[in-house]
UniProtKB/TrEMBL annotation:
<dbReference type="InterPro" id="IPR036249">
    <property type="entry name" value="Thioredoxin-like_sf"/>
</dbReference>
<dbReference type="InterPro" id="IPR036282">
    <property type="entry name" value="Glutathione-S-Trfase_C_sf"/>
</dbReference>
<feature type="domain" description="GST N-terminal">
    <location>
        <begin position="1"/>
        <end position="82"/>
    </location>
</feature>
<keyword id="KW-0413">Isomerase</keyword>
<dbReference type="InterPro" id="IPR005955">
    <property type="entry name" value="GST_Zeta"/>
</dbReference>
<keyword id="KW-0963">Cytoplasm</keyword>
<dbReference type="InterPro" id="IPR034333">
    <property type="entry name" value="GST_Zeta_N"/>
</dbReference>
<comment type="similarity">
    <text>Belongs to the GST superfamily. Zeta family.</text>
</comment>
<dbReference type="InterPro" id="IPR040079">
    <property type="entry name" value="Glutathione_S-Trfase"/>
</dbReference>
<dbReference type="GO" id="GO:0006749">
    <property type="term" value="P:glutathione metabolic process"/>
</dbReference>
<dbReference type="InterPro" id="IPR034330">
    <property type="entry name" value="GST_Zeta_C"/>
</dbReference>
<dbReference type="GO" id="GO:0005739">
    <property type="term" value="C:mitochondrion"/>
</dbReference>
<keyword id="KW-0585">Phenylalanine catabolism</keyword>
<protein>
    <recommendedName>
        <fullName>Maleylacetoacetate isomerase</fullName>
        <ecNumber>2.5.1.18</ecNumber>
        <ecNumber>5.2.1.2</ecNumber>
    </recommendedName>
</protein>
<comment type="pathway">
    <text>Amino-acid degradation; L-phenylalanine degradation; acetoacetate and fumarate from L-phenylalanine: step 5/6.</text>
</comment>
<dbReference type="GO" id="GO:0016034">
    <property type="term" value="F:maleylacetoacetate isomerase activity"/>
</dbReference>
<dbReference type="GO" id="GO:0006559">
    <property type="term" value="P:L-phenylalanine catabolic process"/>
</dbReference>
Length: 210
């Protein structure tokens, strides 16, 4: 497998966690979203992913984009360890939390949107993340065990950790979100989350390395 990734991309991080958890080795091709006006806009990368976004994963003779589509494919083809619970209600809760983050928070504060915001980048990102986290904190109070849904790591957790990292980058006050904070801390202790961390990627700038 070949993963096209950017160290700081939260969508790429989700997939890196999934690959790590499932023990899938891969080659990483960095796509720098800032350099050269954004390497994702090159003709070569557009041919690979017409949406001109990371991640993209070449695997089993196909090329997939969109982090949840990639994670779902890995789940279908390499089911151990499981990232979607067998119980239909828990499975629905995992998908709900994942969608809440990947549709309701992350796209509103990603690079392409922030470029449009001029001087209000920080303020805009904080507003989007805060409103999303207020809802997420309430949801997690009903679903969480050690992790987002019960005590098993799921697709929801793969979405949560990168989004908390975004919140910290945009200086969001995390004190109103004790459940999110507690789950994030527990997940960051797991090896798959450590090795996939933005501070430990081949394309991480020296000053941001762990």
């Amino acid at each position: 497998p070949i993963l096209y990734s950017y160290f700081r991309s939260s969508c790429s991080w989700r997939v890196r966690i999934a690959l790590a958890l499932k023990g899938i080795s891969y080659d990483l091709v960095p796509v720098n979203l800032i350099k050269d006006g954004g390497q994702q806009f090159s003709a070569e990368f557009k041919a690979l992913n017409p949406m001109q976004q990371v991640p993209a994963l070449k695997i089993d003779g196909i090329t997939l984009s969109q982090s949840l589509a990639i994670i779902n494919y890995l789940e279908d083809t390499r089911p151990n360890p499981r990232l979607l619970p067998q119980d239909p209600k828990k499975r629905a809760q995992v998908r709900m939390i994942a969608d809440h983050i990947v549709s309701g928070i992350q796209p509103l504060q990603n690079l392409s949107v922030l470029k449009q915001m001029g001087d209000k980048k920080m303020e805009w990102a904080q507003t989007c993340i805060t409103s999303g986290f207020q809802a997420l904190e309430q949801i997690l109070q009903h679903t969480a065990g050690r992790y987002c849904v019960g005590d098993e790591v799921s697709m929801a957790d793969l979405c949560l950790v990168p989004q908390v990292a975004n919140a910290e980058r945009f200086k969001v006050d995390m004190s109103p979100y004790p459940t999110i904070t507690r789950i994030n801390k527990a997940l960051l202790e797991l090896e798959a989350f450590k090795i996939s961390h933005p501070s430990r990627q081949p394309d991480t700038p020296a000053e941001l390395r762990a």
